Amino acid sequence: MTRKIIVIRHGQTQFNAERKLQGHCNSPLTSKGKAQALAVGTHLKSHLTQRAYRVYASSLGRAIQTAHIICDEIGFEKANVHQDDRLKEFSLGTWEEKPLFELLDEDPALLDRRDWYLKAPKAETYQDVQTRLNDWLAEIPEQEDIVVVSHGLTGIVLRGMLLGLSYDQVWAQDLPQDAFFIIQNGTIERVNCFQDKSFI
Questions:
Q1: Which controlled-vocabulary keywords does the entry list (predicted)?
Q2: What is the pLDDT of residues 65-87, one digit of tens each?
Q3: Predicted confidence band at 1 (pLDDT cuts at 50, 70, 90)?
Q4: Mind listing the pLDDT tens digit for each residue in 180-196?
Q5: Rounded distance, CA 13 to CA 8, Å?
Q6: Would the annotation count 11 as a binding residue?
Q7: Hey, which residues are catalytic here?
Q8: At what angle do helices 126-139 and 152-163 cross, to 10 degrees?
């Protein structure tokens, strides 16, 4: 049986709710974000029954907070989560902590491209993130399933690498906080975790 890699984005944070950019800075999960992480954990349980697995998380607080909520649901010891800097979000340079409306005031056409984040002065490059993810992928075990709690942009790059997507295809993916993705044998399955939208 081939390895599953399950890619999860952290739950909604305070900065997400305020439409501020985070990158390598951090803000805590909102009550909605905690509920999203709980729902992900609840749905994830049934996908981890076939063989041993490991849990990895970005070293940023919002990913660790999400991973710990998920671990409580799936019965995984929080102390055994592998925290890894290579799973961190893109650094967004001088745009970190800036409200999106300020950036749109300066450049109203900013959101015309899906990869607009990379316009940030001193931002980490796409190639830099691919390199660190490649290093991480080379080290994870083949014989166990992998749960990885990361971020919106880093998550789509990782999914793209695992699926062999082009640059444009990578940026066409969505960045949900109420779903996760199971990648196995070059195929992807999306598992939605909030069926009843009134819940959130």
A1: Hydrolase
A2: 999 999 999 999 999 999 999 99
A3: low
A4: 999 999 999 999 997 55
A5: 15
A6: yes
A7: 10, 89
A8: 60
